[in-house]
Design goal:
alpha+beta; four-stranded antiparallel sheet; globular; three-stranded antiparallel sheet; 265 residues
């Protein structure tokens, strides 16, 4: 779809972690190098690892979309509602699989709702899911789809939708707005578009326009809808303000985020 919009070949090169960010940051600011990443994990990882690139050099143009998640409680935790989560005795064990958006959202939720959290780090998403079913952790957070069969089987209890409105698939589960925490809605799993520093404004505007066109209609929109992805794109200053909020929130939660480095299950 992007190839049609840009009218030039588009090469997709998946380069994880620091190597990918280094290539973006040190690329020529000519619009030929465009990255996609998730800002919550980008800034939290930089906080923990002190990479050999300056994370401030990343230039965020916007997001293609952002995914909504659900927090579930293990049946063995005894937690059946958000109110019980807030009043849980002792630290709430929260599932993680590295420094990724789900555990960062849980950390930010604990900071806002004033309960104590203890991250438990698994190697993979699958291990985290099974760890939640076994009761190795009290809560975990992912998109709705991976949890539905486990919710139906009664092995986990959905307690909160990470959005400002309820999920039609789980209509009885409260959302952030229902519990007075709508300010956290901006901390979604953003699929962000990032370019090297000092890309000229006219080139940045062109890139944004091409992405907007690609995901607003035709094949791009059809793909998102078929895959049940959200179509909540955001660009320019509105998204850059979100980045500022993300960085400030992560800084406040830094002590808990640092527990991730020593919490491997």
């Amino acid at each position: 779809v992007l190839r049609k919009e840009f009218k030039v070949p588009v090469l997709v090169n998946i380069i994880p972690g620091p190597d990918g960010y280094n290539q973006i940051i040190h690329a020529k600011p000519d619009g030929q190098t465009i990255g996609m990443s998730e800002p919550l994990s980008v800034y939290a990882t930089a906080m923990l690892t002190n990479p050999n690139y300056n994370v401030d050099d990343l230039t965020w143009l916007g997001r293609v979309n952002a995914s909504v998640s659900v927090i579930v409680a293990s049946k063995k935790s005894g937690i059946t509602s958000f109110e019980q989560l807030k009043t849980h005795k002792g630290p709430v064990r929260a599932g993680a699989f590295g420094v990724t958006t789900p555990i960062l959202q849980e950390i930010l939720l604990a900071d806002a709702a004033k309960f104590e959290i203890a991250p438990v780090n698994f190697r993979t998403i699958g291990e985290m899911i099974f760890g939640t079913l076994r009761g190795d952790v009290d809560i975990s957070l992912l998109g709705t789809t991976p949890w539905l069969k486990h919710i139906e089987a009664g092995n986990v209890v959905p307690i909160l939708i990470w959005d400002d409105h309820r999920d039609p698939a789980l209509p009885n589960v409260p959302c952030l707005k229902d519990v007075g925490l709508e300010k956290l809605v901006i901390f979604l799993n953003h699929r962000g578009v990032v370019v090297p520093p000092h890309v000229p404004d006219n080139i940045s505007r062109t890139i944004v326009a091409k992405f907007q066109a690609a995901v607003s209609g035709g094949e791009g929109r059809a793909f998102l809808e078929k895959a049940k992805f959200e179509t909540n794109q955001m660009w320019g200053k509105e998204f850059q303000d979100v980045i500022v909020e993300i960085r400030a929130a992560l800084k406040r939660a830094e002590p808990t985020i640092r527990q991730l480095a020593t919490s491997t299950k």
